[in-house]
Amino acid sequence: MHIPTSYKTFCFRSDLFQVSKDEDEETNPFCYGKSLAKLLHQEFSQIGYQPEPIFAEDWGWCLMLQREPFMLWIACGNDRAVFYETVTNEQKADLIPQAEEMLWHCTVVDEVPFWKMFFWKKLFGIVSTDEAAALVRTQLHQILTNESRIRFVSETGSETI
Question: Nearest 5°: CA angle at 33, between 141 and 86?
């Protein structure tokens, strides 16, 4: 299956990615995805990458695949809007969401830090990270597709074919 280069985010549902208590203390309220990032770390390591250990960001969990000559990484997280709409502060303290109820997402990100932009353009003519990002998107799609417990959905959470 060909993945369009403009398609960077994969949305899916799965019971694979358990949420640990207080996981979101390292990110922001209701931002999960640590077990998803761990699985992808293992999978990308097996296909030849040497990713850094996963780390928390305010939006979720980051799997950094490379930093040079440009950064290439996968953002792992979940849709948290439903939590902001339905969970009170009192409920939050004891909340451990069930994995199968989550709308998970992974986004492939390629970027040249602004302080390198001038040198990148001078060395390579234009800033183009498209091929590397497209390869990671294809590999990520294959990893997710190979797991029978993952069901792709639209960004609104409805099932896709």
Answer: 115
Whether the pTM exceeds 0.70: the reply is yes
Return d(Cα 134, Cα 22) in angstroms, integer. 34
Give the DSSP per-residue string, the chain.
-PPPTT--EEEEEESS-PPPTTGGGGSSTT---HHHHHHHHHHHHHTT--PPPPEEETTEEEEEEE-SSSEEEEEEEE--HHHHHH--HHHHTT----GGG--EEEEEEEE--HHHHHHHHHHHSS---HHHHHHHHHHHHHHHHH-TTEEEB-TTS-B--
Identity of the amino acid at 54: I
Check if the beta carbon of residue 60 is closer than 8 Å to that of residue 82: no
Provide the pLDDT for residue 6: 44
Residue type, position 87, single letter? V
**48 residue type, one letter:** G
pLDDT at 120 over 60: no
First to last CA, the chain: 13
Residue 128: its pLDDT value, please?
65
Contacts for 84 with CB less than 8 Å, ≥ 6 apart: 29, 30
